[in-house]
Amino acid sequence: MFAYAVRRIIAGILLLIVMSVVTFYLFYASSSTPERFACGPKCTPAQLEVTKKALGYDEPTIVQWGKFAKGFVSGREFPDDAALREAHPEQVVECPPGCLGYSYGYSKTVNSLIKDKLPISISLAIVAFVIWIAGGVLLGVTAALFKGRFLDRAIVGLSLVAFAFPTFFIGLLLLKFVAIRWGIVPLPTYHDLTDNPAAWLSGLMLPAITLALVYMAGYIRMTRAFVLETMTEDYIRTARAKGLPRRVVVGKHTLRATLTPLVTLSGLDLAGLLGGAIITERVFNFNGVGKLSITAIQRFDLPLIVGIVLLLAAFVIVANIIVDLLYAVIDPRVRLG
Taking the complete model, does pTM exceed 0.85, yes or no? Predict the structure, then answer.
């Protein structure tokens, strides 16, 4: 198991390095004048040249990536040009190890910008994840156990309805009726978890349900299909023939086999949400990573865009590693392959 984990971690690190190189070339090499967006539309050619040198855009893309990689490991100072740092030491910005760059639009490091927004996106993703996993598995198993009956058809039918509606429609519907018109819950607002856990959960409930309903619909159908397929296996029939109670057959034997593919899907879905639920954050006016990414694209803030993309890539890669390790725990045949 240890050797398997080491192999997966090394593969994840190499994949992240390749991802960072590809991302740099996609954004930096494809943009002919990124300094124009940093300096502004009224900049003179001389100012553009100074901006280009200060941000390091005058060097080849591979050199820029090398500085980025070195800064991520050991830290970095901005502006990028050493002469400018010596001439204006009061304007030097220190970026500690783990540095993702410097946003010229906000005049802050990318790390500090993401650090302020990430707790909101993480909170939203975790609450939505708990709701859709609990609801999806529970309703999916229930539908499978009542296959062909009214309850099965009702659960599957409602899940299809939820899956058909776009996220923004569900969010606006919940916001208008549940929060504004009926006043069942207060208007969604993010509160710090350490200050007031109850307010934190209450403020996240509507946007989390919005996300959870869309994902839950798919998980209901997948869980139902996996359970029905597993229940036809020989070892399940053997367990029934031995006279084991139904709850033991379903809970111990059927669910364990069902969880294997669900773990893979849920890990990747959670990683995607951690990168920012853009539409949901926009509807409920949550200032998370999703909303930050929209602003970065509108401003063509290359360092911030690249930092967010790499952060999302890191989440997906780490989630992949965790999922593979959990997969190996659930099914020992995986780590022997």
Answer: no
